[in-house]
Amino acid sequence: MGQRYDTIDGRIRTFIEQQPVFFTATAPLSGDGHVNLSPKGRKGTLAVLDERTLAYLDFGGSGAETIAHLREEGNGRITLMWCAFDGPPKILRVHGTGEPVFRDDPRWAGLIRHFGEADGPSARAVVVVRARRISDTCGFAVPFMDYQEERTQHAEYFGRKTDEQFRAYCEKKEHVGHSLDGLPALPLPVPPRTDVPEAR
Question: What are the structural domains, with CATH classification, of the chain?
């Protein structure tokens, strides 16, 4: 039986922080626009900021559909979802509104500190999500799967690039400055970092 929660704390927060992967879903306001669903991984890239606010690191390497939908005037809708692939069955969703905070935003330095060693050269935004609805369902149809380890290719690939090279990479990549539907996405050129990530 599903249940709703007022806050992200206690066992709900613990469940979120224990999952190695989560999913984000967004859509443009246009009825014929592209709905976007993305898996998010990399340990340490999601943080619970308070009882109704989460944030996650947005990296380069893919398009920018989520950012575009969150930036669209009158939009900002986002759903985050976690599934229990081991232990008791559970699917947890946080419906809310999101905002991308870019590297030249005065809030960047304070937010990026929440991610410690997960921060890296390809971090291009912090997405802040404010929960409107927090609920779970049974998850009885979600299969058991064994978590083995983190993939390292993404961090290694971008770890070999300077910030200037990363910014040039973003400018050349399709559907980064604009979404599939032509909505403004990542600001280009990507602003340089006003902070310096710790040496790895």
Answer: 3-172 (2.30.110.10)
**Residue-by-residue pLDDT tens, the chain, 200 positions:** 689 999 999 999 999 999 999 999 999 999 999 999 999 988 999 999 999 999 999 999 989 999 999 999 999 999 999 999 999 999 999 999 999 999 999 999 999 999 999 998 899 999 999 999 999 999 999 999 999 999 999 999 999 999 999 999 999 999 999 999 999 999 999 999 878 655 44
Cα dihedral 158, 162, 168, 173, rounded to 10, equals 0
Q: Which helix (H) or strand (E) holds 3?
A: strand 3-5
Helix, coil or strand: residue 164 = helix
**Residue partners of 164: CB distance under 8 A and separation at least 6:** none
By the 8 A CB rule, do 71 and 183 touch? yes
Other CB atoms within a 10 A radius of the CB of residue 27 amount to 19
CA separation for the pair 175, 105 (Å, rounded): 22
Secondary structure letter of residue 44 according to DSSP:
T
